[in-house]
Amino acid sequence: MAAVNRYGPDYTTLVFNAHSKALVTLGDAAASKAPTLFEVTNFFSREATLMWLRFHIAETFAFLGIFDTASKGQIMQTAELILDNEIFGQLNLDEFLSFLKQFKRGDYGKIYQSSRPNPQEFLMCLRPFWNELSVERGRAEQQKRIEQLSKERHTPLTPEQEQHAEEIIKRLSEKFDLKKEEQ
């Protein structure tokens, strides 16, 4: 229920459809409100999250031309190792898709030798991605704080706050006799 409260009644659609789009930058993914792999597991099931991961891993292997040489077990175990990792399970769906996009571009090297995939290399590529992501998450959090402070500064006063401010100004002006100085 917490997921539905946080993401709205269309949570299922959000998880399995809306996050198939390619994001522009890692910063966009870090700032995304998409659920994490752990949250998807808690809301749906471990098997549903593993199915989502396996689909995207298999699709990446197909793009790289190594799907036919990857065993079903390699894809399944790679998904399990990602989900079981304390760090990687914290990736939100957009972040994971951003990783795959960057991985396809070759930003993290290659995971195969003579057309045979090495899932261990794939998992090792997640580490530098996580480090980059941590920096982006920090930037996103800092931007949120800046925006929040900006909103707080520009928030109009309520009538009660205005009245209280006027009373303080009146008392200060009487105490320091500011009206005489203005004349």
Key words describing this protein structure:
2 strands; 183 residues
Tell me the β content. under 5%
Task: Let me know the average pLDDT.
Answer: 81
Order of helices and strands: HHHHHHHEEHHH
Q: For the record, give the distance between the C-alpha atoms at the N and C termini, rounded to a whole number.
A: 65 Å
Rounded to the nearest angstrom, the radius of gyration is: 25 Å
The total domain count is 1
Overview of this protein structure:
The chain starts with a helix and ends with a helix. Strands 1-2 form a two-stranded antiparallel sheet. The mean pLDDT is 81. The radius of gyration is 25 Å and the shape is elongated. The protein has ten helices and two strands, in the order αααααααββααα. The protein has one domain (2-182). By secondary structure, it is mainly alpha-helical.
In short:
The longest helix has 35 residues.
Secondary-structure blueprint:
Elements: H1 2-7, H2 11-16, H3 26-31, H4 37-43, H5 46-64, H6 72-84, H7 93-105, E1 112-113, E2 116-117, H8 119-153, H9 159-176, H10 178-182
Antiparallel strand pairs: 1-2
Helix pairs in contact: 4-5, 5-6, 6-8
